[in-house]
Write a structure and sequence with these properties.
This protein is mainly beta. Helix content is 7%, strand content 33%. The strands form three sheets. Strands 1-2-9-4-7 form a five-stranded antiparallel sheet. A three-stranded antiparallel sheet has the order 6-5-8, with no helix packed on it.
Length: 159
């Protein structure tokens, strides 16, 4: 059997990819109070149906009410404490600590909050599509008013 197959180059370059932590891409929109880096996206690895990266959110950062259309989102808390509010009036609340996963289903109105006043919140974000879908819901008055520093990743835009 020959050691050379026609599909070897494809698998060598289009197979499994490891993105080292120190090689994340900061060449994405940045916002005061947070630092985002893309790990997995279309530009870096050709991803068609997923986006993943990290975000560091400064203390007290809060988003306004919004949802992400058809997208599913997973947030893994690496360090710090996240508070999530959701519902028609953001009346439901839950907190997540380091090691916890948060799942946000499609179309659920929600607000993300760094629940710490002195510790950054470090998270890994995974989205079910590489599209930037965010639908702001200004008609919902958040119980916790958004701060001037926003939690922003590729699909949460600043003010």
């Amino acid at each position: 059997m020959s050691g050379h197959h026609a599909d070897e180059p494809r698998w060598k370059h289009d197979g499994v990819r490891v993105i080292k932590g120190e090689q994340l891409d900061p060449n994405t929109a940045q916002t005061p109070g947070m630092y985002r880096q893309a790990a997995i996206n279309h530009a870096r690895v050709g991803a068609q149906k997923i986006w993943a990266g990290t975000v560091s959110i400064q203390p007290n950062a809060k988003t306004g009410a919004h949802h992400h259309g058809e997208l599913e989102s997973v947030i893994y808390v690496v360090k710090g404490k996240a508070r999530m509010r959701w519902g028609e009036r953001l009346e439901f609340v839950a907190e997540a600590n380091a090691g916890d996963f948060i799942f946000v289903p499609p179309y659920v109105p929600h607000q993300e909050i760094n629940a710490s006043s002195d510790e950054p919140l470090e998270c890994v974000l995974v989205r079910s599509d590489n599209e930037a879908v965010v639908v702001n819901l200004p008609e919902i008055d958040p119980i916790e008013a958004p701060e001037s520093v926003y939690w922003v990743d590729p699909i949460h835009r600043g003010p």
